Automatic annotation (TrEMBL):
Residues 32-426 form the Major facilitator superfamily (MFS) profile domain. It comes from the Eukaryota. This is Major facilitator superfamily (MFS) profile domain-containing protein. Residues 9-21 have a biased composition (Polar residues). It is found in: Membrane. GO terms for cellular component: membrane. The chain crosses the membrane at residues 30-50, 62-85, 97-116, 122-143, 155-176, 188-212, 233-259, 265-287, 299-322, 328-347, 368-390, 402-424.
Length: 447
């Protein structure tokens, strides 16, 4: 094992990676779980408050629908770059320092974003939005990359279960962010939601300094590109990208569509977005536990969830070729199913990529986990860039219905490609096993 807790007393050390299933969590695991849960919750509530009211506020400040998509998209580009860099150099930087520094940067940027309404409309406002969001994205990438890597390191036998449990707090942040942000915006104006939640994120910094363990490890010579040479990893990453593209598209366009089509206020739009987050929050730990207990079901869950997500995007508008009128109950129902299927699709992907990395000969340790975390974050960010920008362009040129249809088509393509690869891989393994059995049963010929 190439990593250990530095300068920690024996009772604060987490157990070495082993095939034995621990009967109960150690003190350091419990404290780490609390810490990571607080990071997920506070980070996601700050991230999700923009959805209900920022697009409308940006339009008032002179930004077009396309520019709003670019503001959401620039966050994803910087998150992509940050995830790759942080994943590659997590050992040199230090997982604990990376997480705490990322939290601090995100909290300051959230507070600064709340002051942007004082900027003059037009180019100054738009430029400052790009700058603050870009820096915030790097901080968020540092925090999330470290969170994933530390989870896999400290809970090696229950990665999906712990990630699924942490997604409860991610889901709570996503659930509370839109209605809390929308309500505070409606009651107190633009600044208050960002200042309040930015301060909440700032409080998490000293708490995590005290709670999180320090982890040391040796850097690895492996690279992201070698990991991507595995066909299954590449297709899983494609699935991850389509999932985040759909969520980014919803963040950037749903509020304006709902306000225009159904005459809703920003507060009601925030409540609608709960329909997406709540099912995801509830489904993730169950799916994580099941896929940890039965690892062979991971690809099945991912493909099934991807197909359901695609179908829901087709009906979100709904797609024009269905000739169905947009209705509020249908929109809420589809958001709920997307949230549930998102858990089915996303939760199994991270441990599956770790398994593929070990099959490729990557060493077990923090360095490999950091690269897997960075790769996951990079493709998630790629989708978060593609979704708002392309979705915003299609919405502006055509309409929301066609944009949602395109998102669904991409998700369906990714799920079907992964299914095809999985079936081919299974057939190759079966043929190989048949050949080996045939060789064993063939009698030796005496010359």
């Amino acid at each position: 094992m190439d990593a250990h807790v530095a300068s920690q007393p024996a009772e604060n050390s987490f157990p070495a990676e082993t095939t034995e299933q621990p009967t109960r969590m150690t003190r350091i695991q419990i404290l780490t779980l609390i810490s990571l849960a607080s990071v997920n919750f506070s980070s996601m509530i700050c991230y999700s408050i923009l959805g209900p009211f920022f697009p409308n506020e940006a339009v008032k400040k002179g930004a077009s629908q396309t520019v709003v998509g670019l503001i959401f998209g620039c966050y994803a580009v910087c998150n992509l770059i940050g995830s790759m860099a942080m994943g590659r150099y997590i050992v040199q930087i230090g997982a604990k320092f990376m997480l705490i520094a990322g939290l601090f940067v995100s909290s300051v940027c959230t507070i600064m974003f709340g002051l942007l309404d004082r900027a003059p409309p037009g180019a100054p406002f738009i430029s400052l939005c790009f700058i603050v969001r870009s820096v915030d994205a790097v901080g968020f990438a540092a925090a999330m990359t470290s969170t994933f890597a530390m989870t896999a390191k400290i809970f090696p036998n229950n990665v999906a279960t712990v990630l699924g449990s942490l997604e409860i707090f991610t889901g709570l942040g996503l659930i509370l962010g839109p209605p809390v942000g929308g309500w505070f915006y409606h009651s107190f104006g633009y600044e208050v939601p960002f200042l309040l939640l930015g301060c909440l994120l700032l409080i998490m910094v000293p708490f995590n300094i005290y709670v999180l363990p320090s982890i040391e490890a040796e850097p690895s010579k492996d690279s992201f590109f070698r990991l991507l040479f595995h066909g299954e990893v590449l297709l899983i990453c494609f699935v991850i990208g389509t999932l985040s593209a759909g969520l980014g598209f919803i963040d950037a366009t749903l509020s304006l569509f709902a306000m225009k089509t159904f005459n809703l206020s920003s507060g009601y739009v925030g409540l609608i977005m709960i329909g997406l987050s709540l099912p995801y929050c509830l489904a993730s730990p169950v799916i994580g536990y099941f896929t940890d207990k039965y690892p062979g079901t991971r690809i099945g869950f991912t493909v099934t969830g991807g197909v359901i997500t695609a179908a829901c995007f087709f009906l979100l508008g709904p797609a024009p070729f269905f000739h169905i009128k947009s209705q509020l109950w249908l929109l809420v129902l589809m958001l709920g199913l997307i949230g549930f299927s998102l858990g089915m699709t996303a939760i199994p992907t991270f441990p599956e990529i770790i398994t593929c990395a070990h099959e490729q000969g990557f060493e077990e340790g923090l360095s490999t986990l950091g690269m897997v975390s960075g790769l996951f974050g990079a493709f998630w960010s790629t989708g978060m860039f593609y979704g708002p920008i392309v979705g915003g362009l299609i919405t502006q040129r055509l309409n929301f219905e066609w944009a949602a249809t395109v998102q669904g088509a991409m998700g369906l393509l990714a799920a079907l490609l992964l299914l095809a690869y999985s079936l081919c891989k299974r057939n190759r393994q079966r043929l190989r096993e048949d050949d080996q059995q045939s060789d064993e049963n063939t009698p030796l010929l005496n010359g």
